Amino acid sequence: MTTVRLNGIDFNYQRSGSGPRLLFLNGSGGTLAESAPLLAFLARHFDVAAFDQRGLGRTGLPDSPYAMADLAADAAALADHLGWELFRLLGVSFGGMVAQELAVTAPDRIERLALLCTSPGGAGGSSFPLHTLVDMAPADRAALYTRILDTRFTPEWLAGHDADRALTAGLVERSAPQKSDQVLNGEALQMAARSGHDVYERLPRVNCPTLVAAGRYDGIAPPENSAAIGKQIPNAELRLFDGGHLFFIQDPAAFPEIIRFLTAD
Question: What Pfam families has UniProt attached to this entry (predicted)?
Answer without folding.
Answer: Abhydrolase_1
